[in-house]
Amino acid sequence: MLEINDLHASVEGAVILAGIDLRINAGEIHAIMGPNGSGKSTLAQVLAGREEYEVTRGSVHYEGVDLLELDPEERAQAGIFMAFQYPVEIPGVNSAYFLRTALNELRKARGRDELDAMDFLALSREKLELVEMDESFLNRSVNEGFSGGEKKRNEIFQMAMLEPRLAIMDETDSGLDIDALKIVANGVNTLHRKTPGGAVLVVTHYQRLLNYIVPDFVHVLLNGRIVKSGGKELSQKLEAEGYDWLREESAVRLAND
Amino acid sequence: MVNTGMHAYLTAFATLEESLNGRSAAPLHELRRSAIRRFEKLGFPGTRDEAWFHTNVAPLARTSFRTSTQADARRLWKTEDAIEDLASSRLVFINGFFSAENSRTEDLPDGVRAGSLAALLATEPEWVEDHIARHAAYEERPFVALNTAFLQDGAYVYIPRGAAVETPIHVVFVSSASDSASVSHPRMLVLAEENSQATIVETYTGGGAYFTNAVSEVVAGDGAIVDHYKLELESPEAFHVATMQCRQGARSDLCTHAISLGGKLVRNEVNALLAGEAGEATVNGFYLTDREQHIDNHTLIEHAEPNCNSHELYKGILGGRSSGVFRGKIHVHQKAQETDAYQSNQSLLISDDADVNTKPQLEIYADQVKCSHGATIGQLDRNAVFYLRSRGLNDDTAQRILIHAFAIDILNRVKPEPVRNYLERIVMEKFERARDTGNLP
Residue B68 in contact with residue B96, Cβ under 8 Å? Predict the structure, then answer.
């Protein structure tokens, strides 16, 4: 489904990604872990199409299509969704209006009929339940005045509405208390179960979220490269031992190169 | 400043005097005479004048405009300038002169009066003389002096004590340029007595190249509630200079909104004087500019008495090669203790060639006050654009939604729903039109 080869990216001249290779197959859950500044958030942003990051080398193919050629909205239409680490507050833009417009853009792109206000509301009610959010959210401005937990739940609500094939969670667990974390994880798991052939990429600093969203593969990012891949036990080792042993290991490897 | 414009005004004034045929001894004409003398002395403001630092009126000053006459009022008003679904009484002025056939006042409640100042001057000159030019001082303001010198007609609205007018009163000033560019000096006087209530909507519109030099005086008596909207929708070639002077009594509540969309060179001056205790003033504005439009908003809120509140919010969107100016001053007099005043100006630049100058000013002589001000100038929030796009909205739609959200913040404060809907429609229409012509992104 997603194939990343030798991906290099920089922002304002600083190299952040220095050769990422990653392959995600349909149905899989992958976790990218790494310390601050390792480039894991940048990877998520590059996949979502943020223009501030310049891809200098390498390629990304999503379902056979050159992803880097697509605008952010085209990626969304193709089924990619990124849950933001910092969801943006947009005063004056009604949540329901925004989401219905977005949903209908995606439906149009996928050759489906647009939803009218009534159908949209019915669908929203169902999906709001998944993240235990109140219907009144729909009448508020997008993320405006939301608590940290509400913002993250709103991201999962949007994800549930937009039904992506590839869901990218950019440090969704940061700043979440355990109750909100469980709600978010439950939402992601439910959606993953209901999306045959869908995949999830979880970007996180901590192992905690991975107790609830259990990955098939864990990759560790250091200095813009994946230095270790493994199963879910790798994340437990990182939780227990930190990243230092990997830093030493990769330093030795670099010295031998 | 050398100007041929000045000469044209002096000549036009002489013509006006001749046409008065013996009525030139009336007190009102004394006022006109001293106003034209003052105008002649002051001349047009130059950019060395601090209050006009960023607004160059030279193109206006060097134009010889034909002064409009009563005959202009016979032109037909295009009803497309009406606000759909607005059940209102309506006063229409064409080039500054009352047009009875386009106006409608029969639904006004008993005791409430609205109509033509010229007509009232013929029947009750004392009333007009008692109230006109009491508030908009012309001594230091050349454009007010010029308007006062040519004061012949205009709108008056009188709401007696305790009366409430439920439907808005719509005052429309239409300018229609004929063969040559003309100038008109619209005037409006609103007197809302103690505990009365009214909504006034002023619209300025027209076609061709012309100059509108308007002066409005709005008096809210003790406990009066006045809701006021000024819709500046002049033609793209028009010059528009407007001065509004408000005086508020104790416990009065005045809201004024200056919406500026049209014109080539526009200057709005809004001055609110809180002259009684516990008054409440809300002074809002919105502007959307394109091409080479220049829109200057100049406000002064004077807290002369204790316990008054004022709230001021001006928001603007600037595109093309247009420019905007905002200068807002809050003046808290020494005795105005317990003043609470807030002022904000937010500008959104949506083109690389647009610019805006903003200068908030606080002048505080009392010690128990709460005053704050702020100004922001920015571009569309890139994070917000990306957020919307990442959900599937294209760049164009994302920008439109954000611009709408920025504008709607002010438009949502417009209370009469038909006016709000109308403004929302014409603001977005202007935005679309400006973008189609390549003036906006």
Answer: yes
